[in-house]
Amino acid sequence: MPSSMIVFLILAMLLNTGVGVNFAEVFESSWAPDHITVVGDQVMLTLDNASGCGFQSKNKYLFGKASVQIKLVGGDSAGTVIAFYMSSEGANHDELDFEFLGNVSGEPYLVQTNVYANGTGDREQRHSLWFDPTTDFHTYSFFWNHHTIIFSVDDIPIRVFQNKENKGVAYPKNQGMGIYGSLWNADDWATQGGRVKTNWSHSPFVATFRAFEIDACDLSGEDTVAAGAKCGKLAECWWDKPAVKQLNKSKKRQFKMVQSKHLVYDYCKDTARFTQMPKECLD
Predict the structure, then answer these.
(1) Rounded CA gap, 60 and 178, in Å?
(2) Contact partners, residue 167, CB within 8 Å, separation at least 6
(3) Where are the alpha helices (DSSP H) in the chain?
(4) Other C-beta atoms within 10 Å of 97: how many?
(5) Could you give the residue numbers annotated as active site?
(6) For residue 168, what are the contacts with CB-CB under 8 A and spacing of at least 6?
(7) Which listed residue, 74, 149, 189, 216, has the most CB atoms within 10 A of its CB?
């Protein structure tokens, strides 16, 4: 690992703050509860050839920060996907995704991020990680406000999605999103485009989550109008203060380093896929 990245990691650990939550109080199983095990502050998700599993928050949130520490599946995890994401409901949903794509032993884990706004996604980016995410826990975070969405790893920004509504680009700002986690089989696409399939002789596959932190506007079932009144007033909440409106100089340097060394796919550069580039890709 580069010495500069080590320094950034140490700073991130010192600066990391948040509001810890109790898993059982905030979350519930969304499918296959028999494949979810809670031991102390750790939540273990299991995938075998019978089922994967997932959990979801009981409430929905709009603007703020949500994070979790995850230790990914070790060894040959090809075909598996571990997801930590936020999503509203319905066809025109908003969604923010971390998806960790399983790998053949010895190959680097890739993390895929995506942004859906008003039902439209196809905004994938993939990054390699500068550490082995299977040997220890690392923190994965969403931060979002009226202006920007930031995906971070150990408090280091890896992706920034700006509000470009002035260019006709939909932006997630009206729909409360639940917080989700899951482990599932996706060997039709997850590893080398689906060429490498899940080796069930290595199952059960286990991913461990812990240290959930949520510092966001809790809607607690309020409708869209109420959400706008509660969470939508500019500059009244910490996530819309000028200090967090955009990346500071230090974070910009970190972001530039990650983009130059670890970005392996960007939909905004995929001219073979898009005959006309998405509007948010055009500066």
Answers:
(1) 4
(2) 279, 280, 282
(3) 3-15, 23-26, 224-231, 249-262
(4) 21
(5) 95, 99
(6) 279
(7) 216
Q: Calculate the alpha carbon distances from 96 to 125, 268, 270, 282 in Å.
A: 12, 17, 20, 21
Domain containing residue 151: CATH number: 2.60.120.200
pTM equals 0.90
- Euclidean distance between CA atoms 97 and 263, whole angstroms: 16
- When divided into structural domains, the chain yields a total of 1
Could you write out the DSSP letters of every residue in 50-101? S--EEEEESS-EEEEEEEEEEEPPPS--TTEEEEEEEE--STT--EEEEEEE
pLDDT tens digits for range 242-263: 878 789 999 999 999 999 999 9
Q: Which two tokens stand for residue 156?
A: 């280091």
Scan for tokens 């399939």, then name that residue. Answer: 197
Task: List pLDDT tens digits, range 130-165.
Answer: 999 999 999 999 999 999 999 999 999 999 999 999
Q: What is the mean pLDDT of the chain?
A: 89
Other C-beta atoms lying within 10 Å of the C-beta of residue 158: 22
Tokens for 203, please give them: 């199952």
Q: Is residue 116 part of a domain?
A: yes
Residues of the chain by 3-state class (helix, strand, coil), percent to 5: 20, 40, 40
At 74-109, the pLDDT tens digits run: 999 999 999 999 999 999 999 999 999 999 987 889
Q: Band the pLDDT of 221: cuts 50, 70, 90.
A: low
